[in-house]
Amino acid sequence: MKILLATLIIACLLNENQAQSSANFGAPKFTPPPGKKLVFIGQDLSSVGGLETFDAGYLDHFEDHMPAGVTTYTSIPSLAGLESRANWGAGTVQAQAYLEDDKFDGTAISIGLYLVGELRKIHRGKHDEAIVKLAQWIKASNRPIFLRIGYEFEGEWNDYKPKDYIKAWQHIVHVFDQHEVGNVAYVWQSAGINVSNIGDWYPGDEYVNWVGYSHFDGPDPGREMRAFALRHNKPIMIAEATPKVDLKAVDGEEIWASWYAPLLEQIYGNDQIIALAYINAFWDQQPMWHGKGWGDARIEANEFVKRAWIAETQKEVWTEMVD
User: Fold this and answer.
1) What does the pLDDT read at residue 271?
2) Cα pseudo-dihedral 217, 225, 81, 91, rounded to 10
3) Are 50 and 101 in contact (CB under 8 A)?
4) What is the Cα Rg of the chain in Å?
5) Is 216 exposed, middle or buried (0-12, 13-18, 19+ CB in 10 A)?
6) Which helix (H) or strand (E) holds 280?
7) 163 phi, psi to nearest 5 deg
8) What is the largest CA-CA distance in the chain?
9) Alpha-carbon gap, residue 156 to 262, rounded angstroms
10) CB count in 10 Å sphere of residue 186
11) Is 173's pLDDT higher than 80?
């Protein structure tokens, strides 16, 4: 009996030591070289462009600037938008499209994983088949994948209860551990709205590689997450960013001075912010966002903004390389 008990204890300890291996026990993953930063472009195929059937997006106007990564979305349990195309009224998404086009060879992919209404089923193991399929897809992609589990977790529109959210996050990581997924970095993404109890949703240092937040408008987006990242020594990704404006209809110099320049100044002045994901979308053409004031955030829609963006992204601080 003593031998059996000792064996069980050792087995439990081994399992604990193996847990979070896909998260590299919380150490930073896929960070650029020191002093460098990454640009991601998203968040749907039309916005990114550069594809045979989506050829009027960012890459079709900035051919000399291949971003370090692209952003996209899928969900548990459907995994719509991963291998097959999906459109929920906010542009067509399909992560597989980037794997099948040589232009995107080696490009990192940042995936927002939608979990609304599914947290308890996830941590109770009822969606393991879908989680395993996602793990296998990521592993087979053979490139850096940034997985934003339950992005904008504190946003009341998602209604993620902290305890269920944490359990679901940890369960997903443990399933990925079992399937030895090494090319994933877990990004804990806030909505950037600066709630005081942000830590209530935190899965734990060993389960998180990056922290992130959305940057749209409002007072000092992401302030709480930047402070949290400093306390927990995590790199920061501004995981969704776009000005709420119609770039076709505004003075480019004014919007650059009021939105783009302050954002870039903040990024340049903070060594922990090492990735920016810009949403290059024509929001008003998307049914989900039409008429809600988001306008047209495509950089190419405003000549001044386009020239200024080219000048910024040609600076040596921006790199396509990740570690």
Assistant:
1) 96
2) 10
3) yes
4) 20
5) middle
6) none
7) -65, -45
8) 78
9) 27
10) 26
11) yes
CA 309 vs CA 68, 99, 253, 283, 322: distances in Å: 15, 27, 12, 19, 21
Mean pLDDT across 6-30: 63
pLDDT band at residue 261 under the 50/70/90 scheme: very high
Helix 128-141 with 162-178: angle, nearest 10 deg: 50
pTM exceeds 0.70: yes
- What tokens appear for 50 in the block? 């550069």
DSSP classification of residue 43: S
Predicted pLDDT at 8: 30
How would residue 322 be classed by pLDDT, with cut points 50, 70 and 90?
low
- Name the percent of the chain in helix, strand, coil, to the closest 5: 40, 20, 40
For every residue of 97-148, DSSP letters joined together read HHHH-GGGTT-EEEEEEE-TT-HHHHHTTTTHHHHHHHHHHHHHH-S-EEEE
- The mean pLDDT of the chain is 93
Structure tokens at 246: 């119609």
The CA distances from residue 282 to 57, 78, 91, 274, in Å, are 10, 26, 9, 26
Q: What phi and psi values does residue 90 have, to the nearest 5 degrees?
A: -130, 35
What are residue 260's phi and psi, to 5 degrees?
A: -70, -50
